[in-house]
Amino acid sequence: MGYEKSAQYYDLFGEKPDISYYKHLGKQYGAALEVGVGTARVALELAKAQVEVWGIDNCEQMLEVARQKISLQPAAVQKRISLVTAEMTDFELSRTFPYIYIPSSGLSHCITTEDQLNCLKCIHNHLEKGGLFAFDLMLPGQSYSTALTLIDTKEVEGDVVRRWICHRPDFTNQLLHTTLIFEVYTQQELTKRIVESSTVSLIYKRELLLLLDKANFTVQHLYGDFSRGEQTTDFLVVEAVKP
C-alpha cells in the first residue's frame, strides 16, 4: 500500500495482532532486520523489548514518521534502532542478522516474480546460517469489495478521520489495485481529502513455496494466524530457515 501522501495517518489505523508474534521471535534471537519497516510500528516495540533492530523501507514519508516516533523514546531505545532507505528487492547492508521478518503482507509489494525472488535472495544473503525468516501474507481471496466502502473512523486532536477503500482485482495478471481515501473533518466540515492508489501482487500458496525453495529457504512452519493455529482462511504466517 502506498502511503506517500497519508503516512501521518498510517498508525492511526494500524492496529494489527502481529506485534506480540514478531516481538517474541525478536527476543529469542536478540537482533533483527525488518524489511518494509514503514513507521516502525513493529520495530519500535522490538527495540523497547531490548532487541537490536534494523529496518529498511523505500518510502521517505513513512520513515520520517518513524524517525519522529523514535526521537521521543529514551536514548537506550533510540540506539537499538537503525533505519535505512532501500528497496526491498535490492539492498546491501553492512551485516547479517539471526532473524529477519516482513510484517503486513509486505512481500506482496513485490509485483513481479523476479522482484519477489530478488527480495527473497536479498533476505537470504543477509540472514545468518540457521537464522529465521518469518513473514505473513494475505493470499488471494475469493472475492473483493469493488465498491468504495467506509471501513474505519477515528478521532485525533479534535478532528474526525474517515478511511475509505475499494479494490479492483486482476486475477489474470495476479494483481490487486487498491484505492484508499482519507477524509479529515474539522467541526463536521471536510477540510482534507487524500487519495492513495497502489498495486500489490496476488501470490498463491503453491507459488510462494516454490519461490522460497528457489531462494534456498527451508520452510519449517506454516500457520493460519499469529497464535500458530492451523490455516483455515486466506491468511498465512510462514517461518523458514537458511540451512
What does this structure look like?
The chain has 243 residues and is α/β, with parallel strands linked by helices. The chain has two domains: 7-140 and 203-241, 3-Layer(aba) Sandwich (Rossmann fold), CATH 3.40.50.150; 149-201, N-terminal domain of TfIIb (Single Sheet), CATH 2.20.25. The protein is 24% helix and 38% strand. It contains six helices and eleven strands. It has helices spanning 19-29, 43-48, 60-71, 75-79, 113-126, 205-214, and strands spanning 31-35, 52-57, 81-85, 97-102, 127-138, 149-156, 159-170, 175-186, 189-201, 218-223, 235-241. A seven-stranded mixed sheet has the order 3-2-1-4-5-11-10, with helices on both faces. A four-stranded antiparallel sheet has the order 6-7-8-9, with no helix packed on it. β8 and β9 form a beta hairpin. The longest helix is centred in the middle third of the chain and has 14 residues, at 113-126. It is globular, with a radius of gyration of 18 Å. It starts with 18 loop residues before the first helix and ends with a strand. The mean pLDDT is 96.
* Helicity, as a percent range: 10-25%
CATH top level assignment of the largest domain: Alpha Beta
Summed up, the helix count is: 6
| CATH topology (fold) name of the largest domain | Rossmann fold
Q: Can you count the beta strands?
A: 11
Order of helices and strands: HEHEHHEEHEEEEEHEE
Low-pLDDT runs:
none
Question: Main β-sheet: number of strands, strand sense, barrel status?
Answer: 7 strands, mixed
CATH superfamily of the largest domain: Vaccinia Virus protein VP39
Rg result: 18 Å
* Proportion of strand residues: 35-45%
Mean pLDDT: 96
CATH architecture of the largest domain: 3-Layer(aba) Sandwich
Strand order of the largest sheet: 3-2-1-4-5-11-10
